[in-house]
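Quick one - first record:
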Amino acid sequence: MGRSDEDWSAWMRAGIAGDQRAYALLLTQMAPVLRGIVRARASGMDPAWCEDVVQDTLLAVHLKRGTWDSAQPLRPWVYAIARHKIVDAFRRRGRAVHLPVEDFAEALAAEDGPDPFEAADAGRLIDRLPGRDAALLRCLALEARGYEDCGARLGMTPGGLRVALHRALQRLARLRLEDRV
């Protein structure tokens, strides 16, 4: 451990104990080191972006100073914070590529026709209904059978089928609303 490592740790201990001059000296000594680290990791980035990362790091050191183990050297702890702040800054910046949609409109156009996922999505939603409701909706909607055929299959009269269908559709609508919330 070098002398500056010992100085940083001693100044942080003094700063935590209330010595404002030692704490100010620590931050003053830390800033150029952090600038070098950020610039090395973010080569080619805007200097203002780098300075924002340095300031974020100094602020994090200040806010989290109570979590530092004073028996350990300060420098590795500060470097870990700087590394995380650099990663966070890159994530915030992102790597967005903007292309005009008009250039790809013909290639992206969907074919006319039914949605290939519609039946599977409807089936998963219907499967969440109670047994008779699910069987009724599966017969009428997914299998596209008629009222008479589904009524005979499920042992229901035409009037009973209409009432059961109405109730099943209400339950289905409630499930759909719950999914949106």
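second record:
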Amino acid sequence: MSVTTVTTSGRKNARISKWALGIGSFLLVVITTYLGLLAVTFFIGRVIPVDPVLAILGDRAPAHVIERTREELGFNLPVWQQFIIYVQKALSGDFGMSVLTSNPVMTDIKRVFPATMELATIGTLIGAVIGIPLGVLAAVKRGSFIDQLVRVVGLFGYSVPIFWLGMICLLIFYAKLGWVAGPGRIDVAYEYTFTSITGLYILDAIIQRQWDALGNILSHIILPASLLGYFSMAYISRMTRSFMLNELDQEYIVAARAKGLSETKIIWGHALRNAAVPLVTVIALSYAGMLEGSVLTETVFSWPGLGLYITNSLQSADMNAVLGGTIVIGSVFIALNLLSDLLYRTLDPRTRAR
């Protein structure tokens, strides 16, 4: 066997070992993070002074019924056994029954989650489409009035409570001007003629070619989505400005200008291209933040999503629903975080070389 063959075989084995180690580390991170999420939600459910048995049966249930139900649910077992049972059920998607709706929690989540996903998706798109150009403009015009204006707009987005701004916008654009539809996802007049297929109303209306219903759906979603998009834009524009300032100070920008390239080509074709790599992570985390942080927005606009579902469940001491919704949101956040990390490694060749 030649030296070249041995060297090639050794490199191949090294690559395989590197891939196996990377996959093993990735799976370990996923498992550890998810177990941590389950542990946190489990102990929160035990710390909160709400008896789940009394929440199900009521305060006037006989003592023997309460005791029997407690045994059936496993609350008489040691805590570590309860946690193992909790993990097993959570991994199978069993979060128990909702006291509020009398349905399995997972069934309720499947019904309400598409509304939250639709709202968060449009909000993130608005935030990215507006926030990235504003961040680029602020970086290019560093220290100018435009830069200060973009930073003030972003600071306002961080500072103003979203529930207050939502009520003000409802008062102005719905109650006074009548430019948009009010709270809810669709008018009652369309509830019997519009059929939900995927749970994403905009997509369903396009598939069924119900253009009147589509207009009504867009009229309902534009205001809450714009509010979420504004807060997302504040974050994305600030991070874009930071990334662009770092790129504009690099030597390759000086070299590109020395070669006579136009500023438009340098900024949008080179600097933003390199800044787009970390921006993927920023946008993914912003989207995850929309999914978990839209509780107040959904409450103000009576948006029938996961945030409103968790809020109503919390007010009714329905801890199965609260913890189930929390686990789903946490799982989505973990998945998006890991996806952004994978995209970062795919788009940036420097991370693949490590």
